Amino acid sequence: MAQKLTLQHPLQRLPSPSRGFSALVHATGLASFLWSFKWMHDNPNQANEAYGWHFQYLTVIGLGLSTLTFACGLLADLTLSRRLFLAKNILSVCSCPMEVLISVLYWGLHLIDKNLVVPPEIFIPIHADISFHAIPSIVMLVDLLLLSPPWTITALPSLGLSGAIAFGYWFWVEKCFSYNGWYPYPIFELLPTPGRIGLFSMSAIVMALSTATLKCVYGRINGFGTLVPAQSRSGDIKKEDGL
Prior knowledge:
Structural class: mainly alpha
InterPro entries: ADTRP_AIG1
Helix content: 55-70%
Membrane topology: Multi-pass membrane protein
Oligomer: single chain
Subcellular location: Endomembrane system
Largest sheet: none
Strand content: under 5%
Protein name: FAR-17a/AIG1-like protein
Number of helices: 9
Organism: Penicillium atrosanguineum
Distance between the termini: 9 Å
């Protein structure tokens, strides 16, 4: 029993870090993320030479954070390092809700009017579109629900983190605009400043809600449990008297 708890959190569904299914998921996700960066390099647009490069796009910021998350996950699998596994889980608290937010916003606005999120002069083939805007959230959800311990972040810190990301991105977008004279997403061009504030505020709320929803879904799938202390961090191991 003590050996099992050392290797895996009691609510975690599948072994991770491990050189089996966990390594396969992280390697597959990482390969998709790196392919997306290669696609950007091979299909340049105005962002390639602009201030901020493609990191003006929230999609690419999320992709970069997901790449770092899965790199830590794969290294943890290969080395069976608990420290790298903990680093992956900490990063996941930010990257997974962000990828869910990106997918919800992108495909929601895409259904309303594709030109709100993709400038008319840019063509993204369907396989690249899926690689950028669907696969990251899918593999991050697989990692969370099957290969990770439960998150312990609560509602207020979650909203604070989401707000910091949303308004930090707004500051970054405006800084890039001051150099480039154009916004990365056409919808920013259409909205006045109060409208952009409302959009970023709504995004922060949606990201916080996605964090709470993901915690709930995790509990439904893996159990909520009463064994994990509130002050523990993602990746911590359950400790019992005598262990």
